[in-house]
Amino acid sequence: MTNVTDTLQLTVRYAGDRTAVVSVAGDVDLHTASTLREQALAVVAEGVPHLVLDLAEVDFVDSTGLSTLIRVLQATQAADGSLRLADVPDRLVRMVTMTGISQLMPVHTTVADALAAQHADGTPDRVGGGGATAG
């Protein structure tokens, strides 16, 4: 029996003025991808152009979900930002690699690795001020 849900859980945590970690839980598919797209684009519109998507709790991504990742990437790039994927479950790594998504956006083992790599790339980000650091 297939369990189809229209629910996608998203949590946004600001890791500085210009960086946010969006934790995603559930399936990113035809029924839920718009939720991810709308929330991520809203964060970018707030002036936070660097996003890390924490996919640890994602079970499934379909073609609509993949298109959403590319749309979010384009929005971050248009805002002089970046998109990184973190904690991609083993069951999704092959899909991310075979579809070429990993060539478009960096894939990191953990959120901490993604944030460290972003800072190592020279991305300025003041902690405090406009964003709250969780930890």
From TrEMBL:
InterPro entries: Anti-sigma_ant, STAS_dom, STAS_dom_sf
One annotated GO molecular function: anti-sigma factor antagonist activity
Domain (STAS): residue spans on this chain: 21-118
Pfam families in alphabetical order: STAS
Source superkingdom: Bacteria
PANTHER family for the chain: ANTI-SIGMA FACTOR ANTAGONIST TM_1081-RELATED, ANTI-SIGMA FACTOR ANTAGONIST TM_1081-RELATED-RELATED
Family the UniProt entry places it in: Belongs to the anti-sigma-factor antagonist family.
Name of the protein in question: Anti-sigma factor antagonist
Taxonomy of the source species: Bacteria, Bacillati, Actinomycetota, Actinomycetes, Kitasatosporales
